[in-house]
Amino acid sequence: MERGDAGSLGATLETAPAAVRPLPLRWCPESPDFDQAALGEALRVLATVAALEEHVRPQGEEAGGVEAEVARLNQKVQLLMEMVGSLIRAQLSLPKAASVRLTAVGLRWQTDMPPALDSRGMIELWLHPACPDPLRLPARVLAVSSDSPTTVEAAFEELPEVLSGALEKLVFLRHRRELAESRQLRRG
Asked: What class is the 2-54+94-187 domain?
């Protein structure tokens, strides 16, 4: 893999908590100006995804009454939101889903059309089927493989602390959920 001057991101991408899943992703080779409006939009997308992925469950099987009813209503609202999101996304021209390894500091993805090594731009990631808006983050390409499909590694650049923290929380929760799901599959 051809690497720029970014030494340790590859190791960080392998060892840091990561969410690994296919996601629609687009690289936009534009100036990665990240102003207050872009920050607000990124935080809104992360908050939306966090709310969509929040699971409300009653405390134990004997939980009844209000808690059970809230859990049932939450499931129905989630279903409606995913249906509306699917309808909206069907109207959009989303990029093809790519295999993505997302961490709090960067990501790795596979593509047939890689960006240039050391190029700067915006990563657009559609994180949840019910959220039609992408998470847009400034990034720099640090490594590009010569394989087909090409593997690209990019680091997020100059994320404000509040955004970095929100992204880290999302990645950690997804990583933990993926570990729990893989343990469940191994058990049977």
From this structure: mainly beta
